[in-house]
Design brief:
Blueprint (H helix, E strand, L loop, with lengths): L10 H6 L5 H12 L3 H6 L7 H15 L4 H5 L1 E4 L2 E4 L12 H10 L5 E5 L5 H9 L4 E6 L2 H13 L4 E5 L11 E6 L21 H4 L7 H9 L4 E10 L5 H9 L3 E8 L5 E8 L1
Parallel strand pairs: 3-4, 3-6, 4-5, 6-7
Antiparallel strand pairs: 1-2, 7-9, 8-9
The protein binds glutamine (GLN).
Glutamine binds next to loops.
Length: 275
């Protein structure tokens, strides 16, 4: 079998003429060789053995086939923490850090937080890690996702209670000071679902198989029964959904309804407070 990368090639030569996005290639090289980013520089004269060339070739080949880097290496950084990820969960996105920041700003001492549709656990674990006094609950309908989320809480030493639940079903009668969610919000048939990393991510984490707002509607409708007076509901949503989500909140008993922009300047999180 011909290899993408020939044995004997040096790390310097490989990086001078990258076969794919240089950042992606660097991550994959480090992973295949078990070295750090610094190692890539200090060992730039290192020539790949037959075995190493085969390992590097295999990883680059997978990336060229479209597979997300995070799934190939099995991890992704989020909010300064390391998360284990696999095809059973959405890859944590930098814009979701905005939701964590807004939640931390609103969390009272020893506050009770609920993360709905936790996936990899990124949001719940980041909150619990930053605020060990908080009582964090995270739920998901996918047992595979919950297994990954549990591992991530352990990896990061975060205390989170995980529940297998289809939205509100497993939390009847429970109250929270803050509810957060990054639910599936891409509409059925949206072309983004057929592009890039999204092709490899679980459809159930990305799309509601409807107009993109059905999960958001369910959360907005159900949250008041579980929110303490003055408690906030904060939701991530798509680039063009802030007006629709504000309207959903305003049509119910929420006050201070507003949206916040991510680093790309997109209205990305919308929330309201129970009066
Ligand atoms: N932010 C993701 C994307 O557009 C979608 C995540 C979601 O549906 N919750 O790639």
């Amino acid at each position: 079998m011909t290899m993408l990368v020939a044995p004997g090639i040096t790390l310097m030569a490989l990086q001078r003429a990258p076969l794919l996005d240089p950042v992606d290639q660097r991550i994959l090289l480090c992973h295949a060789l078990g070295i750090s980013r610094t190692g890539l520089i200090t060992q730039s004269d290192r020539a790949l053995t037959e075995d190493e060339a085969a390992r590097v070739s295999a990883l680059l080949q997978r990336r060229l086939g479209g597979e997300p880097v995070a799934y190939i290496v099995g991890r992704r950084e989020f909010y300064g923490l390391d998360f284990s990820v696999g095809p059973g969960v959405l890859i944590p996105r930098p814009e979701t850090e905005l939701l964590v920041e807004l939640a931390l700003e609103r969390l009272p001492p020893r506050g009770r937080v609920l993360d709905m549709g936790t996936g990899s656990g990124a949001i719940a674990v980041a909150i619990a890690h930053a605020r060990p006094d908080a009582q964090v609950t995270a739920l998901d309908v996918s047992p595979d996702a919950l297994a990954i989320a549990r591992r991530n809480a352990e990896l990061n030493g975060a205390k989170v209670r995980f529940l297998h639940s289809d939205w509100f079903t497993a939390i009847a009668g429970e109250g929270f000071d803050l509810i957060v969610s990054n639910p599936p919000y891409i509409a059925a048939g949206d072309r983004h679902l057929a592009e890039g990393d999204l092709r490899f991510e679980p459809a159930g984490a990305l799309t509601d198989h409807a107009d993109g707002l059905s999960a958001l509607r369910t959360i907005v409708a159900g949250a008041p029964a579980h929110l303490a007076p003055g408690g906030w509901l904060l939701m991530e949503h798509g680039y063009d959904q802030s007006a629709a989500v504000q309207a959903l909140l305003s049509s119910r008993s929420y006050t201070e309804v507003q949206s916040w922009h991510d680093l790309a300047g997109i209205a990305r999180v919308t929330g309201g407070r129970l009066s």
